[in-house]
From TrEMBL:
Belongs to the zinc-containing alcohol dehydrogenase family. Transmembrane segments: none annotated. This is Cinnamoyl-Coa reductase. The keyword Oxidoreductase applies. Its EC number is 1.1.1.195. It comes from the Eukaryota. GO terms for molecular function: cinnamyl-alcohol dehydrogenase activity. It comes from Stylosanthes scabra. Keywords: Metal-binding, Oxidoreductase, Zinc. Gene3D superfamilies: Medium-chain alcohol dehydrogenases, catalytic domain (3.90.180.10), NAD(P)-binding Rossmann-like Domain (3.40.50.720). Coiled coil: none annotated. The keyword Zinc applies.
């Protein structure tokens, strides 16, 4: 298969340190779209991958699956995109296209997904958005609404769809209902914005008292609940219709169940490194539901982007240069970001620094 030279920043071992890296991309084929990468969000999954926290990283690896850029080339079969379009690429770049999930536009649940980086694909391995360009099958490319900025819109391709999808699937969108958002980070801060756009009352649930001001004043949540305060948690018993749990650390579920009303729903999207204890008694006695959710399929992700365009929803970001990525990763490991790093790829990645 023909290929083109590309460059980016890669980790070469489990230290996770990223450095300049030359590699090859496949040529644009009939169903492909090539895009110049302008911005790429820095997801917590990137940090886990470069450090091999999950045990399946193959080095060298170029991370990045919150990619936003401009179309520079389209294949002969491509009808949805043209040169100059503002587009994005999220967590996957291919799937089997034949299974029940793919047939239902739920490619994220395909048993044979091809992730945007660190995945075997057509005799090589995928490399992500910390790089100058990418070639992707048209099915896995998304159109950005004209009013949505690409830098602050890039994190929506992972963080955004990861909370939008379960809110839609589990019916957590009824105006006037009460939504609890557990955890205030990259996922949680976008969940607040979706909740407000759906007309929900939104309460942020956090163990950090320092986050109350930002939850209320910056993100416009309706209220803040300090989960480390037993009295406040007791007072909030049975007050919430839904909770979306974005916490990635090991934590108690029983305390969250207690906040739910009869028939309440708790949906978890965080990925703690160790199993959580699931107490059955409060589920049974309150006819409560616990569910999980992956990121959404391509059709739903496009729907989410269009929704964000309509409601002017973007991520709160800190824009960084490519050569600041190692410092950003270190800060991310300490949750020292509000609320998503985004790499200004096109303006800081050039052949001169490779």
């Amino acid at each position: 298969m023909a290929s083109s030279n590309a460059f980016g920043w890669a980790a070469t071992d489990s230290s996770g340190h990223l450095s300049p890296f030359h590699f090859t991309r496949r040529e644009n084929e009939a169903d492909d779209v090539t895009l110049k990468i302008l911005y790429c969000g820095v997801c917590h999954s990137d940090l886990h991958t470069v450090k091999n926290d999950w045990g399946f990283t193959t080095y060298p690896v170029v991370p990045g699956h919150e990619i936003a850029g401009i179309v520079t080339k389209v294949g002969s079969n491509v009808t949805k995109f043209k040169e100059g379009d503002r587009v994005g690429v999220g967590v996957i770049v291919d799937s089997c296209k034949e299974c029940e999930s793919c047939q239902q536009d739920l490619e994220s649940y395909c048993p044979k997904p091809v992730f945007t980086y660190n995945a075997p694909y057509k005799g090589t391995r995928t490399q992500g958005g910390y790089s100058n360009f990418v070639v992707v099958h048209q099915r896995y490319v998304l159109q950005f609404p004209g009013n949505l900025p690409l830098d602050a819109g890039a994190p929506l391709l992972c963080a955004g769809i990861t909370v939008y999808s379960p809110m839609k699937y589990y019916g957590m969108t009824e105006p006037g209902k009460h939504l609890g958002v557990a955890g205030l980070g990259g996922l949680g801060h976008v969940a607040i914005k979706f909740g407000k756009a759906f007309g929900l009352k939104v309460t942020v649930i956090s163990s950090s008292p320092s986050k109350e001001a930002e939850a209320i004043d910056l993100l416009r949540a309706d209220s803040f609940l300090l989960s480390s305060d037993p009295e406040k948690m007791k007072a909030a018993t049975g007050t919430m219709d839904y909770i979306i749990d974005t916490i990635s650390a090991v934590h108690s579920l029983v305390s969250l169940f207690g906040l739910l009303k009869l028939n309440g729903k708790l949906v978890t999207v965080g990925l703690p490194s160790k199993p959580l204890q699931l107490p059955i008694f409060p589920l049974v006695m309150g006819r409560k539901l616990i569910g999980g959710s992956n990121f959404g399929g391509l059709k739903e992700t496009q729907e989410m982007l269009d929704f964000c365009g309509k409601h002017n929803i973007t991520a709160n970001i800190e824009l960084i240069k490519m050569d600041e990525i190692n410092t950003a990763m270190e800060r991310l490991s300490k949750a020292d970001v509000k609320y998503r790093f985004v790499i200004d790829v096109a303006n800081s990645l050039s052949s001169s620094n490779i």
